[in-house]
Amino acid sequence: MVVFFVRGRITRIVFEEREGIPGAMRILRFLFSVFFFGLHAFNATAFTGTYGINYGRIADNIPSPDKVVTLLKAAKIKNVRIYDADHSVLNAFKGTGLELVVGLPNGYVKEMSANADHALTWVTDNVKAFLPDTHIVGIAVGNEVLGGSDYDLAQSLLGAVKNIYNATKSLGIDDVVQISTAHSQAVFANSYPPSSCIFKDGVAQLMKPLLEFFSQIGSPFCLNAYPFLAYTYSPDKIDINYALFQPTEGIYDEKTDLHYDNMLDAQIDAAYAALENASFKNMEVIITETGWASHGDQSEAAATPNNARTYHYNLRKRLAKRKGTPMRPKTVLKAYIFALFNEDSKGGAGSEKYYGLFKADGSISYDIGFPGLKSSSAASSRISLKEFQAGKWCGSYSLIFSISAPILVLLLRL
């Protein structure tokens, strides 16, 4: 047995002498697998750290997937979500170490629910075929299905989730690919104050069996939460500083005796309250979308570059603190930002085209500390050299070497 610390947790790996493979050789094989594929292969969660991003592609002018990889690595963003399983993206992510959640679009949900064989084929062709070179760590089945206007689609969601999960299990990848689905705040009947939040009557009957299944397989509750939209709908009732993580009086929830100094925390705790009311107190909430538009229609006066920068800069600082919310202080908040690029082909409100941290040419939309695409390669090289000279390069790999070196010495003496 080998015992060591990874990210503050004790990990024990037991090597049995079986199938003619000596224990020492099994240790060697384990160390090499960790070195080449990373420790996440032994961890079923789909999120590393606290910060991720949504890579939407409803645009005709954004960089190619290989340039996107360069941009993401320069920005040191490891967690990425896409809304489909486009093979050009999956191929570009091969060997990069970036962790990817792929999406099963809403248009496929009914088919996957009705036909388990189709679900198996989809997972085989779009996930299994790319593992382990492309680190696909999750499948998001549909997006904002419950709470929408298509009741037939909503009724099909659970069946699709089960068939996709069973496909991963049949293919032996259920321990590394997490199944989830993201919800909008339209699933809630009320979210103010946070402790009063419950699921809507029309949603609850479909939500509860879905939550039961996710509870069984260890999946989180995924929420798309936008203080920008809440403020835009009610600018006369909401202090914009509260929405932007700026100093403000905040709100006080009398029932829980908790104070909130920002709206995102309140939105998350509203979800926790709804989950607790539905008897799923222990389920984690992960933010799968949150962002602030930098431009918009006349009715979206808060969509400015300055407000977008303020929201994203403060959110990045908030996530870096690795803390929870007032209702769940010990559960570290994790969030995927929306979005990587401005997407010029999106319909709807004017703001829909301007959620990107980066413009179509890869330059920054506003400065929150990320390098743009044009300077990213050189900046990345300088940082890497500086870290290498300081002895800080490849933290996880240096940990592996520090562990493996004495073990290898012992093995050579056997």
UniProtKB/TrEMBL annotation:
Record-listed E.C. numbers: 3.2.1.39
Keywords tagged on the record: Glycosidase, Hydrolase, Membrane, Signal, Transmembrane, Transmembrane helix
Hydrolase among keywords: yes
GO aspect biological process, one term: carbohydrate metabolic process
Transmembrane segments: 27-47
Catalytic activities: Hydrolysis of (1->3)-beta-D-glucosidic linkages in (1->3)-beta-D-glucans
Molecular function in Gene Ontology: glucan endo-1,3-beta-D-glucosidase activity
Family under the similarity heading: Belongs to the glycosyl hydrolase 17 family.
Protein name, as recorded: glucan endo-1,3-beta-D-glucosidase
The species this protein was found in: Handroanthus impetiginosus
